[in-house]
Amino acid sequence: MRIAAVIPALNDQFNFIRTNGFNPQKTAILEQEISGVIYHPNSYAEIIYWSPDKIEIQAEVHTDQLLVLSEMYYSEGWEISSHSDWKILPVNSILRGIQIPSGKHHIVMEFIPDDVWYGSLITWISTGILILFILSGLIIKCNKDESNSKTIYYKT
């Protein structure tokens, strides 16, 4: 695969894709420049696990490569948890790409959106507060019941 000239604007990318000469098997359109990518025919990548929120890939590349996955590019929440310094790149305006340095790699991509983490935190905190209110209400009720149940003796 050869990489086309970098086209940062989305509308310009769509116009390039619409041209008669565009072949997605041979050309990848990127928003930003990447360096050092040289095609090597003996490089390989294999998806060893896939789920909607996690993808594991085993790769062996002999030169720096651009791995393009037929997965929708979505910038919010997806990260490469096995290599925190690597970035997921948009390719052809819609696909996910990863620049892989030469060598053997076990790559793990996970969907970990911040809003889910914050939502879980708020849920646990509010549940804890609710439990405290219920316990304090029960303690106050037990104390009132004890004070009402004391026997009062009258002398006649």
Task: Indicate the topology.
Layout: E1 2-3, H1 10-17, E2 27-28, E3 44-51, E4 54-61, E5 65-72, E6 78-80, E7 88-91, E8 95-100, E9 103-111, H2 114-148
Parallel strand pairs: 1-2
Antiparallel strand pairs: 3-4, 4-9, 5-8, 6-9, 7-8
Query: Termini distance?
Result: 107 Å
Number of helices: 2
Q: What is the approximate shape?
A: elongated
- Would you tell me the overall average pLDDT? 86
Q: Structural class, please?
A: alpha+beta
Structural notes for this entry:
The chain is an alpha+beta fold and 156 residues long. It has 2 domains: 2-111, no CATH class; 114-150. It contains 2 helices and 9 strands; from the N terminus they run E-H-E-E-E-E-E-E-E-E-H. It has helices spanning 10-17, 114-148; strands at 2-3, 27-28, 44-51, 54-61, 65-72, 78-80, 88-91, 95-100, 103-111. The chain has a 4-stranded antiparallel beta sheet with strand order 3-4-9-6, with no helix packed on it. Strands 5-8-7 form a 3-stranded antiparallel beta sheet, with no helix packed on it. Helix 1 links the parallel strand 1 and strand 2. The protein is elongated, with a radius of gyration of 29 Å. The protein starts with a strand and ends in an 8-residue tail after the last helix. The model has no long low-confidence stretch (mean pLDDT 86).
Short descriptors:
single chain; 2 domains; alpha+beta
